[in-house]
């Protein structure tokens, strides 16, 4: 049996072993692929895109948030509540404080970008284990694209899953956007 914890640990180790240059190159490519996707979806400026501020080795970037903001989108990022549910705040390059928009704000996003350690072909997503996104994704409007950002090699054949896991509809990697599950 492959436990969630062992897959998390393996991917965390693999991310930690990347050089700064490798991470930087893949993060830049992922940023470009996300912007390609916004153009392909014909997502108009002013629409909301939910994203996240990356932890140390995650495949998001502040440059991605800035690029979305400069393209005219309202960028929402999560703020973790005491019970690990997610509140949302509006992000801007030079803003340090921002009003909390509430846990349901993610439901107004036209595109949702989520952190993950891995995703599989049917859309199962392996996160950090707090269940934060399982709760948040339950509030996303039906049909809204939900894309996990992943480095190369993190789109797996099979990810361990529990009843409460919420699927994603795509993975964005340096090589591009891959629809998964029914997405
Ligand atoms: N960038 C990002 N934001 C996110 C999440 C995430 O996975 N990534 N979350 C997803 O649910 C929520 C926060 N959940 C978290 C759960 C655990 C740890 C954690 O264990 N942090 C380690 C450092 C990890 C690292 O640097 O790689 C620590 O504090 O020691 C952090 C956030 C909401 N915001
Ligand atoms: N809707 C929910 N309300 C409260 N707790 C939940 C909910 N969904 C899942 N959980 C709890 O969250 C915990 C972690 O779940 P899991 O390991 O699937 O997290 P994850 O999806 O990998 O993490 P994250 O979404 O934070 O990145 C489980 O103990 C589960 O019971």
TrEMBL record:
Entry GO MF terms: 5-formyltetrahydrofolate cyclo-ligase activity
Listed cofactors: Mg(2+)
Short name of any one Pfam family annotated for the protein: 5-FTHF_cyc-lig
Family matches, as SUPFAM superfamilies: NagB/RpiA/CoA transferase-like (SSF100950)
Keywords: ATP-binding, Ligase, Magnesium, Metal-binding, Nucleotide-binding
Family to which this protein belongs: Belongs to the 5-formyltetrahydrofolate cyclo-ligase family.
Protein name: 5-formyltetrahydrofolate cyclo-ligase
Organism this protein belongs to: Jatrophihabitans lederbergiae
Lineage: Bacteria, Bacillati, Actinomycetota, Actinomycetes, Jatrophihabitantales
